[in-house]
Model the fold of this input.
Amino acid sequence: MKYRSVFDIIGPVMIGPSSSHTAGAARIGLLARKLFGTRPKKANVTFYGSFAKTYKGHGTDIAIVGGILGFDTFDQRITQSLSIAKDSNMEVSIHVSDDIPNHPNTARIILDDGNKKLSVCGISVGGGKMEITEVDNFPVRVTGDMPTLFVWHEDRYGLVAAVSEVLAAHKINIGYMEMARKSKGAEALMVIETDQAVSGAIYKEICELSYVNRVSSTPAL
Done:
């Protein structure tokens, strides 16, 4: 990942102690929460690599749970996130894995509200920056720097064009797009970074397209 300014290296305004192990983790949790859409009843977190070894001393667990609760990196409530989650009846499970990840600061989050589930894998790359590398077992690349649209759909001819046409009709400019599928003609995930936020009315139009199963989005963090 390239840094665009010295402030990307210094890191954000945050609750410490570490920009990579605390702020980056909080942003992974926050993006997962924004994508899920509501406060989950259960949050299952697994740490890998350096996260697994140091999460207690660096507060990675309270940071990522704070993000899942919807707290930004500078929110003082992050320090009490585990207690707040308990008081909110959000069941939190923290695990560590000996599996060797592609990146040392890796976390996997599974959110569940009894009606829907979401799996997100993210990495903290330093300076408070993070990247989501997987959503529901689909490989992706999401930094959270731009408003991002997620479209779960069946892999069918013309659907990418149909979604693009809806966005174009509303003057929404696409900055980046990628699509992953489990196999030809099977379930797929379209990820679209846009220059403008996408409204609920546009979600509805996209949801009404044939073969679209679900639509969600995340704001720029």
Summary: The chain has seven helices and ten strands. The chain has a mean pLDDT of 91. The longest strand covers residues 117-126.
